[in-house]
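stage 2 :: seqdesign
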């Protein structure tokens, strides 16, 4: 018979006592107690039923003559009676009932009869050969008992006798506290008294306890109580039904623990934190003490090999997390972060080597097995009273990462196979999170290493601006970004200032940033205008996007490119979707520069525009990426205000200003990478410049040499006279021979000696080896041998050919005017082109 629906009074099953008549009768067959269920079933109120014979209350539909003595024989049966009978409701309609008559003995051995009746249409086995009461009271797994007003047992069925582990004789006349001290007795008796006093049934009351039938294991029970009354409404006692719901309770507990573990484990991409979260989630609900040990190679960033672990690799493991019900984890032999070692016979080692979980329901810590190989640890565990152990390897994607150990020392009973299944679920979730964290950390570190290797480590020497920078990586959730900056010395003592930001994060963004930075430096060496540089970068990104894998995501970037000339104190700027720079005047007034907003790099098809602005000496130019402005609140205006406030004192040291700007970021670390480049403009003094207009006459070459030599004497640079006269002579001669229009010569004394010859031609000269029979073609070769850098710069009026020499000759280079060495080099076609690497 099925009794699974019998645990609650409000149900529709056969054990629904709200639809069952429960009647107490004496040996004479007179009703002494009448329940609400009896009233609902037969229609008689308590006042009408109590004191009347059962034959009148259960009036049969058959002729009265054949029913006169039917109840007399039923009540007289020593073992009770069960059967089926059709009776009349108070209003006369027919009821097909199943009956059970049970003899009841109280503490004084006075005999009474308990009559149970239920309508056959309400029972799931209507028409069965046995009474439903026989199933309830004899074969059902539901325990049924009756206690009097003093909560002393007066009756119980076989199921309750088996469930509690105490016989009927031991229970009768005693209270629950006397026979089942391992249950929640006080709470149960309080619930009974509540039902006794209010008359309101208590349905589905759940509690935990250790019955005498199984004192080593905690059980869960669901119990329903209802009150019994006599004809005068006097309370007789309480009848209760109890069902052992341990398995369903444990299943709910396991599900709740798994949900809890799912919420707690893997909240971050940190290996150490995830391991600790596993230990925290398992204590105290599953175990009293938990340790998580990870392979040391994994924590060092090495890639673990698939499959079970070699025992030799377990020499070095590291404690990554632990938790205990005792404060301070006194069970731990090592602290978190320290190396831990196990003998080859230890359960942790065997579990990892064999690749399987291990359950030790009864932990043997005697002087044998692994305890003999690790006596210190075994003695420690023995002293603390450990009696049950589980070891589960951490495995994710076929790779073993370490092992988790679960132990019990409290009297909660040994671990069961279901506990091992639950522990494996815990560890599986943690292993996936740890492996994700490990992979993320490795990729994040690789991206950081790549990004840092691609960013400038030190700013180059130049005389155009005083510069300082800060780079702040984003938080670990966003990953490394593609922000970059650069300060690039240009010809003519100019400097290029660059800030950019690649779309996205991770290794791909860092690699794209490296490509862009290398391209910017190459384009800057060509002395292109800012808008031309951005156009070439846009074309490059379009080619990269066309060749890229679709999995790489969107390829795009923003960029700001500025060129500052300290001779004229003018700056030319262009931007591609990048935030406008902030300019702070020498007096402290700040404003965003109004620049044409070009499209971000990678869109293609749109032109870029540049703007030329005067920047007085001492002006402060702030270039930055949007991570500096957009915090977690995404407040652009607030970011501009913070930056302007931080730079309110433009003459302060740039390093201090950088610290002030970064220190004012809200919320600690930003959500996106921050690149900040501050540049304070300088101006070259007129005494550092010299300019001459050169007539288009070959005889003017000698005068140009003499003018250059005179200025070198004023600058105290006579040691450069020979090489400078040679460079000036060659550049001016080439301009007179091959160019047209006005020709000018300019010399700049900055960090290097710069010689520039400008003309109106757009033809660029090329360096080549002249044959021994050629009359010319050696001029640029001579310049390359003596100049540190040289090249061509185009202007709207034509071009400028320039050459730079260090202010002092390099040590060991020999005298600058060693003509014999020069001639030897001219005769040697394989002679190196010293200084020609730039152009």
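stage 2 :: out
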């Amino acid at each position: 018979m099925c009794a699974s629906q019998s645990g609650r009074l409000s149900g529709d099953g056969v054990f629904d006592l709200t639809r069952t008549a429960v009647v107490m009768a004496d040996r004479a067959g007179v009703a002494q107690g009448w329940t609400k269920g009896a009233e609902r079933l037969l229609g008689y109120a308590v006042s009408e039923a109590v004191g009347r014979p059962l034959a009148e209350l259960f009036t049969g539909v058959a002729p009265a003559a054949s029913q006169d003595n039917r109840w007399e024989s039923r009540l007289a049966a020593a073992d009770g009676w069960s059967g089926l009978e059709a009776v009349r409701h108070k209003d006369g309609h027919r009821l097909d009932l199943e009956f059970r008559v049970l003899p009841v003995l109280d503490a004084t051995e006075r005999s009474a009869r308990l009559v149970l009746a239920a309508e056959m249409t309400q029972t799931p086995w209507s028409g069965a050969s046995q009474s439903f009461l026989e199933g309830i009271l004899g074969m059902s797994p539901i325990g049924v008992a009756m206690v009097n007003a003093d909560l002393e047992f007066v009756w119980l069925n076989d199921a309750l006798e088996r469930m509690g582990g105490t016989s009927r004789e031991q229970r009768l006349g005693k209270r629950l506290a006397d026979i089942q001290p391992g249950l929640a007795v006080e709470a149960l008796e309080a619930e009974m008294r509540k039902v006794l006093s209010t008359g309101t049934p208590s349905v589905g009351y759940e509690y935990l306890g250790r019955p005498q039938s199984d004192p080593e294991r905690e059980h869960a029970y669901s119990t329903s109580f209802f009150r019994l009354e006599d004809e005068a409404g006097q309370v007789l006692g309480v009848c209760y039904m109890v069902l052992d719901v341990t398995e369903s309770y444990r299943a709910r507990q396991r599900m709740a623990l798994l949900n809890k573990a799912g919420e707690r484990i893997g909240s971050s991409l940190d290996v150490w934190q995830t391991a600790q979260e596993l230990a925290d989630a398992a204590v105290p609900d599953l175990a009293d003490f938990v340790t998580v040990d990870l392979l040391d190679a994994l924590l060092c960033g090495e890639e673990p090999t698939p499959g079970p672990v070699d025992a030799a690799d377990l020499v070095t493991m590291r404690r990554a997390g632990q938790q205990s019900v005792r404060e301070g984890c006194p069970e731990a032999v090592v602290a978190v972060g320290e190396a831990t070692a196990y003998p080859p016979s230890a359960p942790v080692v065997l579990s990892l080597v064999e690749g399987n979980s291990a359950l030790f329901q009864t932990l043997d810590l005697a002087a044998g097995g692994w305890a003999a190989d690790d006596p210190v640890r075994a003695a420690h565990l023995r002293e603390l009273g450990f009696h049950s152990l589980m070891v589960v390897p951490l495995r994710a994607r076929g790779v073993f990462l370490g092992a988790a150990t679960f132990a019990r020392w409290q009297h909660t009973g040994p671990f069961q196979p279901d506990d091992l299944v639950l522990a494996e679920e815990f560890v599986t979730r943690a292993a996936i999170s740890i492996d994700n964290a490990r992979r993320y950390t490795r990729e994040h570190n690789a991206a950081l290493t790549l990004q840092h290797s691609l960013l400038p480590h030190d700013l180059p020497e130049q005389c155009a601006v005083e510069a300082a920078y800060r780079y702040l990586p984003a938080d670990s959730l966003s990953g490394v970004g593609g922000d970059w900056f650069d300060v690039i010395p240009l010809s003519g003592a100019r400097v290029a200032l660059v800030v950019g930001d690649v779309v996205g994060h991770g290794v791909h963004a860092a690699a794209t940033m490296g490509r862009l930075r290398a391209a910017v430096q190459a384009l800057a060496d060509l002395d292109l205008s800012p808008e031309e540089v951005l156009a070439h970068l846009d074309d490059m990104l379009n080619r990269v996007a066309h060749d890229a894998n679709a999995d790489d995501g969107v390829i795009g970037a923003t960029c700001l490119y500025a060129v500052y000339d300290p001779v004229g104190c003018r700056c030319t700027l262009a931007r591609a979707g990048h935030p406008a720079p902030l300019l702070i005047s020498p007096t402290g007034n700040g404003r965003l520069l109004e620049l044409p907003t070009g499209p971000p790099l990678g869109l293609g098809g749109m032109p870029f525009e540049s703007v030329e602005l005067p920047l007085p000496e001492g002006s402060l130019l702030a270039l930055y990426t949007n991570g500096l402005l957009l915090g977690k609140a995404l407040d652009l205006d607030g970011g501009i205000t913070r930056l302007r406030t931080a730079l309110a004192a433009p003459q302060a040291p740039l390093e201090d200003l950088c610290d002030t700007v970064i220190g004012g970021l809200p919320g600690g670390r930003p959500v996106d990478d921050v690149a900040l480049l501050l540049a304070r403009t300088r101006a070259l003094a007129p005494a550092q410049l010299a300019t001459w207009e050169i007539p288009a006459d070959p005889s003017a070459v000698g005068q140009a040499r003499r003018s250059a030599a005179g200025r070198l004497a004023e600058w105290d640079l006579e040691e450069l006279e020979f090489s400078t006269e040679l460079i000036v002579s060659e550049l001016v001669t080439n301009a007179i021979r091959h160019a047209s229009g006005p020709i000018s010569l300019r010399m700049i004394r900055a960090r290097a000696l710069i010689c520039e010859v400008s003309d109106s031609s757009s033809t660029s000269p090329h360096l080549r080896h002249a044959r021994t029979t050629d009359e010319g073609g050696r001029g640029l070769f001579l310049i390359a041998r003596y100049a540190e850098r040289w090249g061509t710069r185009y202007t709207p009026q034509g071009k400028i050919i320039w050459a730079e020499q260090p202010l002092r000759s390099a040590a060991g280079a020999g005298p600058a005017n060693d003509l014999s060495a020069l001639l030897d080099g001219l005769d040697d076609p394989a002679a190196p082109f010293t200084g020609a690497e730039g152009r």
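stage 3 :: structure notes
- Residues 455-681 form a domain with the Phosphatase 2c; domain 1 fold (CATH 3.60.40.10).
- Confidence is low (pLDDT under 50) at residues 1-15, 123-131, 810-816, 825-839.
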